[in-house]
Amino acid sequence: MAFIDYYKVLEIDKKATDTEIKKAFRKLARKYHPDVNPNDKEAEKKFKEINEANEVLGNAENRKKYDAYGENWKHIAEYEKANQGQTYYNQSQPHEDFTSYGRDAEDYSDFFESLFGNSARGRHRSQQYKGTDFSTELSLDLHDVYTTHKRTLNINGQNIRFTIPAGVENGQTIKITGHGGDGIGGGPKGDLYITFSIKNHPDFKRDKNNLYTTVSVDLYKAVLGGEITVNTFDGKAKLNIAPGTQNGTKVKLKGKGFPVYKEEGHFGDLYITFQIKIPTNLSSKELELFTELSKLRTS
User: Fold this and answer.
1) Count of alpha carbons within 13 Å of 161, Cβ hemisphere only?
2) How far apart are CA 160 and CA 157, in angstroms?
3) In CATH, what number is assigned to the domain containing residue 90?
4) Fewer CB atoms near the end CB (10 Å): N or C, the chain?
5) Residue 126 half-sphere exposure, CB side, CA atoms within 13 Å?
6) CA 267/CA 154 separation, integer angstroms
7) What pLDDT digit, counting tens, does each position of 131-171 carry?
8) In what order do the strands lie in the sheet with 205-207?
C-alpha cells in the first residue's frame, strides 16, 4: 500500500503550526468539497485525501507518531499492541473536519485504514462553513461615481443590484454581503467583493476629494482683466480675472470638487490653473501696436 505524505496533501511545511494546519485544511476542503464539485471524481479523491491528512496532522499525538515513524507508521498499531496491549489509533482526540456524508470505509485510502481502522468513520461530524467569496472588477468613468446610483451585475448567472455611493475611489473595494458561493453544511453564503477601476478624465484630475483643471485665458484678458466662464465638473461658473494675471496663476473654487465618500452634501474643492494663451498669426496692425507697447515698457 502506498505511503501518503500528508504534509504535501495539505500543501504545508513539516514545521507548520496547528493554526496553519487548520487554515490549510479549511481552505482545501472548501475548494474540493463534493458540494462545490459535483460529479468530479478527481475532486472527490482529493477531498478524501485532505480529510485523511487532517485526521493525522490535526491531532497532536497522531502527528507525533506520523513524524516519528513516517512510511513505517502503518506497522505501529501491531507494534504497540504487542508491546503495550493496546491500540494507539483508538486514542485520537476530537478535531475539526468536513462532514463525511456517510462514506464507507472504502472511501478512505488503504494507508489510512491501516492506521485508524473503521473507527475513523465514526468520528466525522457535520459542520457548517461559509461559502466561497467572489470578487470582480467594475470599470467606471469619473462621472459614474460623482453621484450615488444603482448598478446591476451578473455574477454566475445571478443578477445582483447594488448601490454605488458617490465618491468611490479608484482601486476601492466594497463588500456585498451574502452574494458569494453557497455555504457548506448549511453554512452562510459567501460575500461578493467589487473593486472599482475609475478611468481618467480628459479635463479633470482627481486627488481624493479635490479636482484639478487648467483653463486657457487669452492675453488681453490676462493683461486687462475681465470675466470668463469656466467648466466645473457639474456645470459652469463665472470667474473674474484680475488685471495682470500671470501664467500659472491658481484659484480655488470651494465646494466644486468631488463628493466625499458617504458624506452626503460634502464636496472637495476645484483648483484651476490659468494658462495664458499667446495670440498667433498677428496682423500687421497688431504687430505695430505690440511694437509700440514694447517701446513704452522699455522707455
Assistant:
1) 2
2) 10
3) 1.10.287.110
4) C
5) 8
6) 32
7) 888 889 999 999 999 999 999 998 888 899 999 999 999 99
8) 205-207, 210-218, 270-277, 250-253
CA–CA gap between residue 224 and residue 217 (Å, rounded):
11
- Tens digit of each residue's pLDDT (9 = 90 or more) over 48-95: 889 888 888 888 888 887 887 766 555 554 555 555 544 433 333 333
Residue pair 10/24 in contact (Cβ under 8 Å)? The answer is yes
Domain range spanning residue 240? 205-281
Using only C-alpha atoms, the chain has a radius of gyration, in whole angstroms, of 35
Q: For the chain, give percent helix, strand, coil, nearest 5.
A: 35, 25, 40
Q: Same domain for 42 and 107? A: yes
User: What distance in Å separates the CA atoms of residue 101 and residue 34, rounded to the nearest whole number?
Assistant: 9
pTM of this structure: 0.56
**Cell numbers 468520528: residue:** 123
